[in-house]
């Protein structure tokens, strides 16, 4: 929350869960941080696919805010 500066723990969990169920494995870090650790050999198409999954998960987690 930008006003109260409280960590977005619930939002992070929604993003992690939705990403996982759509084929993207992300790591939680801290209270409201997401860690992305792709392999050095990742292809451009896999980067695009992963970013699309992440974008949709963030939009879904922020729906209603």
Question: What's the quick description here?
Answer:
The chain is mainly alpha-helical and 65 residues long. It contains 2 helices and 2 strands, in the order αββα.
Structure characteristics:
65 residues; mainly alpha; Aspartate Aminotransferase, domain 1; two-stranded antiparallel ribbon; 9% strand; globular
Strand order of the largest sheet: 1-2
Which ranges are low-confidence, i.e. pLDDT below 50, for 5 or more consecutive residues?
none
Count of discrete structural domains: 1
CATH architecture: Alpha-Beta Complex
Q: What does the main sheet amount to?
A: 2 strands, antiparallel
Number of helices: 2
Oligomer: single chain
Helix content: 40-55%
What value does the average pLDDT take?
93
Instruction: Count all strands and give the number.
Output: 2
What value does the Rg take, in angstroms? 13 Å
CATH C-level category: Alpha Beta
CATH topology name: Aspartate Aminotransferase, domain 1
Q: What is the CATH superfamily?
A: Aspartate Aminotransferase, domain 1
The N- and C-terminal alpha carbons lie at a distance of: 10 Å
In N-to-C order, the SSE pattern is: HEEH
The structural class is: mainly alpha
Description of the molecule:
With 65 residues, this protein is mainly α. It has one domain: Aspartate Aminotransferase, domain 1 (Alpha-Beta Complex), CATH 3.90.1150.10. Helix content is 49%, strand content 9%. The protein is built from 2 helices and 2 strands. The chain has a two-stranded antiparallel sheet. A hairpin with a 3-residue loop joins strand 1 and strand 2. Helix 1 packs across helix 2 (44-62). It is globular and about 40 Å long. The N and C termini lie close together (10 Å).
């Amino acid at each position: 929350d930008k006003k109260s500066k409280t960590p977005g723990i619930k939002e992070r969990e929604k993003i992690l869960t939705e990403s996982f169920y759509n084929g993207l494995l992300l790591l939680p870090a801290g209270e409201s941080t997401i860690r992305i650790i792709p392999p050095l050999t990742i292809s451009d198409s896999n980067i695009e696919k992963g970013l699309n999954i992440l974008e949709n998960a963030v939009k879904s987690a922020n729906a209603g805010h």
